[in-house]
Specification:
mainly alpha, two-stranded antiparallel ribbon, about 130 residues, Arc Repressor Mutant, subunit A, 2 strands, homodimer, DNA-binding, Diphtheria Toxin Repressor, domain 2
Chain lengths: ~130, ~130
DNA sequence: TCAAAAAGTAAACTAAAGCTAACTTTTTTG
DNA sequence: CAAAAAAGTTAGCTTTAGTTTACTTTTTGA
């Protein structure tokens, strides 16, 4: 899995986040969290399964594979760094920081992310 | 025209940029600049025509309408602000700044863009 | 001036990602 | 424990945006 779409990255991220507050993540949980239909989720999960990023028995809960977990954490980490930067450095509101971080996290390069992290570190804004 | 896809914004932007160094912008110019096929360009132009953002007679050159020009300039302006910020503030390389600006310009909110502009102004980095 | 090259278009295919309607399976609960 | 509710899936539609192949139109230059 070298390339993932923004959409599939979002699914992994939300599964990761939901997992932190519930024992098992299901299609309906994801659909509600992302405000999309259940069939859309089912199809996305199928695609993630094909890429060995999640495991799910038919009608069962969705579990991230180690690789899926790795990708999800990577995306979520980018999200948190960007959100912090937008809020603390650019003075953007909570809500906008959340929304924009969620979009920028999918398109930003490694180099720019590192620039952001370096900036936060230099200014003593801890992660 | 309240909402434009990232792709269509890119077409408007590239037409605007090409126009600065050539008298008439054609399908082939755009295809080469964006490294995509000519039929892809033709279809995108058709969509922009439907939205009254460009004018083109059959087999003719492509011209931005005043509204198209307004949108193109808005996108390109975002691009320049972001590129400058990435380079001057985050210390990102020329090439990466160009690439990332080109992606972030389509997803960033007004509020965050204003935060970026304010930051540049505060630090005396002139536009 | 007319034939070849270049430019532009049309048609049809593909993939991603959303949707609804209708179905099956599982869970809950009276 | 069986019926209803909830959860999950399937099938088929839509849009966007890329592709290739094959066509038409325009431009150019020997």
């Amino acid at each position: 899995m070298q390339y993932l779409t923004a959409s599939l990255e979002d699914y992994l991220e939300i599964i990761h986040i939901l997992r932190q507050s519930m024992s098992g993540v299901g299609v309906t949980d994801i659909a509600k969290a992302m405000d999309i239909s259940k069939p859309s989720v089912t199809r996305a999960i199928k695609s993630l399964k094909n890429n060995s990023l999640v495991i799910q028995e038919k009608y069962g809960k969705i579990i991230l594979t180690p690789e899926g977990e790795r990708v999800a954490e990577s995306v979520y980490s980018r999200h948190k760094v960007l959100r912090k930067f937008l809020k603390e450095v650019l003075g953007v509101s909570e809500g906008t920081a959340e929304i924009d971080a969620c979009k920028i996290e999918h398109v930003i390069s490694k180099e720019t992310l590192e620039g952001v992290e370096k900036f936060l570190k230099n200014y003593g804004i801890e992660g």
